[in-house]
Amino acid sequence: MFRLRVNSALFLAPLLFLLSPGNDAQECRSGMYPPAGPTFGGDVPWFTVSLDEPPAGRWSAVVAARKAELLTMIQAIKELANSLVPSGELVKLVDRVFPLIVDTLPYPFNEEIKGIADVSSVPLGEIVLFNIFYEIFTVCTSVVAEDLKGNLYHSRNLDFGFLMGWDRQNKSWTITEKLKPLVVNVDFQRNNQTVFKSTSFAGYVGMLTGIRPNIFTLTINERFNFDGGYVGILEWILGNRDAMWVSFLARSVLENSTSYEEAKKQLTVTEVLAPAYFILGGNQSGQGCVITRTRTLALDVWEIELKLGRWYVLETNYDHWDEPFFLDDRRTPAMTCMNRTTQANISFKTLYDVLSTKPILNKLTTYTTLMDVSTGRLESYLRDCPSPCSPCRWR
Which of 352, 386, 389 is closest to 367 using CA atoms? Predict the structure, then answer.
């Protein structure tokens, strides 16, 4: 057994920063696209993954190109774990127990994870941990919008790393910064033809952001609930394996579903390990929705409804029928900016402007992705948010 001894400064410093007085909320940004300036962290490189290759070797080129960055990120996670449990027992537990999980994971994800561990020289248990981080914690903003011509656009900020190591000097989240060099765009092909595209992290085999060209687009946002992903992980370890890992389900849908309606059905009815919001866009007018999920069922499917004047659906990390947490209201400024943009002006440019407005853009934002289903176009950009900047509206 090990004792959990929390380093209070690790948590108090960022919390005090979030709660301290400040005023970095912005008017809606404009002229941010094409990306440039201090909020642009760089372009995201493209890789090809062949689904015809044996799973163990599919990610070799991606991981080899980002091996150093992956090792740096894993080391940062270890240091964070050791700050919580100074004896190092938490890391030892991961290295001892998590390799036992990999063979219980569905094919081909289990074999892909093993291959990544081999290429990267990172212990298998630590690669498993990296691949189930959605079930632990991530936050996001996603929006699907329809223009006046019936074209569907889907965009998102992926935010990750809250309470995962605070760099006082740079006023940034440690794991967030370590993840940015791992962001990659991947073209998944079969028979040398694109099946789907995704923005992901090198070493991560599930999907959080993706497009099946001409058919649908998909993003996942975290949904906070007491019956969270840690419960699902524990049940999985104890032998209850009826549910799907959330990011594995998203990848399966992107790879196998051949219509918006089929994708919506799978995301609505499949039992999952963690609560989630699935944000889905299609290729026809009115095809855009937010599916609010518990682990066992869909509580709500909130759809674009032009007759009601709802030409977009927007999700952060709170049920759309409830008020967001007062310290994390990204929804209100995002909707304000969308409404000011108007349906007549929706484009990659204006969506990027919305997602560049604080606090929608914040210290946790790793990347912004823009997708146009009709052209199959996916663009992703690394993001920075110079201080003062935080997930909270007032700091």
Answer: 352
Tokens of 236: 């999985």
pLDDT at 14: 45
Does this model's pTM top 0.85? yes
Q: How far is CA 29 from CA 23, 192, 350, in A?
A: 16, 40, 9
Q: First and final CA of the chain: distance in angstroms?
A: 40
> Taking a C-beta distance cutoff of 8 angstroms, is the pair 58, 50 a contact?
yes
| Secondary structure class of 272 (helix, strand, coil) | strand
Tokens read off for 148: 């006046």
Count Cα atoms within 13 angstroms, Cβ side, for 380: 28
Question: Distances in Å between the alpha carbon of 256 and those of 229, 251, 263, 278?
Answer: 24, 8, 9, 16
3-state SS class at 310: strand
In which residue are the tokens 């674009």 written? 304
d(C-alpha 112, C-alpha 207), whole Å: 13
DSSP, residue by residue, 334-385: HHHHHHHH-GGG-SHHHHHHHHTSTTTS-TTEEEEEEEETTTTEEEEEEE--
Classify residue 239 as left (phi > 0), alpha (psi -120 to 50) or beta.
left
Cβ burial of 143 (10 Å; 0-12, 13-18, 19+) is: buried
Residue 144 pairs in a beta bridge with 154, 313
What does residue 72 show for φ and ψ, rounded to 5 degrees? -65, -45
pLDDT band for 1, please (50, 70, 90 cuts). very low
How many whole angstroms separate alpha carbon 151 and alpha carbon 285?
Answer: 7
Which one-letter amino acid corresponds to residue 297?
L
Confidence label for 137 from pLDDT (cuts 50, 70 and 90): low
Question: Helices 67-84 and 109-120 meet at what angle, rounded to 10?
Answer: 100
Q: Which residues is 370 bridged to in the sheet? A: 155, 379
CA distance 296 to 276: 11
* Of 28, 140, 289, 337, catalytic: 140
Q: How far is CA 74 from CA 65, 71, 79, 328, in A?
A: 16, 5, 9, 28
Instruction: Establish whether 140 is a catalytic residue.
Output: yes
